[in-house]
Design goal:
- The protein is α+β, with helices and mostly antiparallel strands.
- The protein has 7 helices and 6 strands.
- It has a domain of about 160 residues.
- A hairpin with a 2-residue loop joins strand 5 and strand 6.
- Helix 1 packs across helix 4 and helix 3 packs across helix 5.
Length: about 270
C-alpha cells in the first residue's frame, strides 16, 4: 500500500539535505517533492506564487476538511515541505526517521506556538558573540595485536609390526652303531668285562630373540616468521562548517528545537 510522508522544515537547506540523503539511501527522486518559500533552488516548487492557496489545497487533499488541514497548512506556509511517496509502510517509516533526523519540525507543537504567541523565532536560540562551533576531526590509528590462527601438535604413540628374520639352526642326534667282530679277548677287554654305562647327549640350536632400541630420528616443532605489508582502510569523521547568509524570509522564522514530528495514518497515508 502506497503511503505519503510529509516533513516540514524551517530552512530550505535542511530540506535539501534531507532529500539528498533520501535519494542516496534507496529512495527514487521521482517519488520525492520539495516545496519551498520562493523556490530557492532548482527542483523545488514555489508555492508563494499562489498566495499559499496551493499549500492549503495540498493538505486539504490529504486530510480533507479538518483541524489537521489548517494546522499543517499554517506551519507549511512558513517552511519548506518535503513529500515522500513511499511504496510500503516500512519505507514510509524509514523516510519519517530520516526527515526527523534532518530537522523536520513537530507540527503540533509549532502550530500551538503560533496560535499561543509563544513562538519567539530566531531569537530563541540567538548566537552570542564569542560562541563557536568546535571543529573535531578523527584520526585513525593502526596498531597490532596477536591472535591465534592455528597450530601443530605432536603426539607420539607405540605401534607394533611384524618382522621376519631367517636363522640357520643345527640339531644333533645320537646314533647307535653296532659292529659285529670275532677275535680273542685281550687283557684290556677282560679288564672292561663288567657292568658299564656310556652316554652321549643330543643338542639342538633354538632361536633366541632379544631386542635393542635405537634412536633413528627426532621430530620437533619450530616457527617460521613471515612479514607482509597490509593496507588498513577505515572511515574517520571531521567537522565541516558551512557559512549561509540569512534571507529576508529566514529572518522571520526560526529553527525550532523540537525535531520529532507527529504521524497520522489516514486512508492508507502516512503523514508527517
Amino acid at each position: 500500500m502506497s503511503q505519503t510522508v510529509i516533513g516540514i522544515f524551517d530552512y530550505t537547506s535542511e530540506a535539501q539535505e534531507a532529500v539528498s540523503y533520501l535519494t542516496s539511501n534507496g529512495f527514487s527522486r521521482d517519488n520525492i517533492d520539495l516545496s519551498s518559500r520562493g523556490a530557492e533552488t532548482e527542483g523545488t516548487t514555489d508555492y508563494d506564487n499562489d498566495n499559499n492557496d496551493g499549500v492549503s489545497g495540498f493538505f486539504s487533499n490529504l486530510f480533507g476538511t479538518s483541524d489537521d488541514t489548517d494546522k499543517y497548512a499554517e506551519v507549511g506556509r512558513k517552511g519548506s515541505i518535503v513529500t515522500v511517496h513511499a511504496k510500503s509502510s516500512d519505507e514510509a517509516e524509514k523516510a519519517a526517521k530520516i526527515l526527523d533526523n534532518y530537522g523536520a519540525v513537530d507540527v503540533d507543537e509549532r502550530a500551538e506556538q503560533y496560535r499561543s504567541g509563544t513562538y519567539t523565532g530566531n531569537n530563541q536560540n540567538r548566537t552570542k558573540e564569542g560562541d563557536s562551533i568546535k571543529i573535531i576531526e578523527e584520526k585513525m590509528e593502526v596498531g597490532k595485536r596477536e591472535v591465534e590462527t592455528g597450530g601443530v601438535r605432536l603426539r607420539s604413540r607405540i605401534v607394533e609390526q611384524s618382522v621376519h628374520e631367517d636363522v640357520r639352526l643345527r640339531t644333533e642326534r645320537v646314533r647307535v652303531d653296532r659292529t659285529n667282530v670275532s677275535r680273542p679277548a685281550t687283557d684290556a677287554d677282560l679288564a672292561a668285562f663288567k657292568d658299564a654305562t656310556i652316554e652321549l647327549k643330543e643338542t639342538a640350536e633354538v632361536p633366541v630373540v632379544s631386542k635393542q632400541a635405537f634412536v633413528t630420528g627426532e621430530v620437533s616443532l619450530g616457527k617460521e616468521v613471515e612479514e607482509k605489508n597490509q593496507t588498513v582502510e577505515g572511515t574517520v569523521r571531521k567537522t565541516e562548517v558551512d557559512t549561509e547568509n540569512f534571507t529576508d524570509e529566514d529572518t522571520k522564522l526560526t529553527s525550532g528545537d523540537t525535531k520529532t514530528t507527529g504521524t497520522t495514518n489516514t486512508d492508507g497515508g502516512f503523514y508527517k
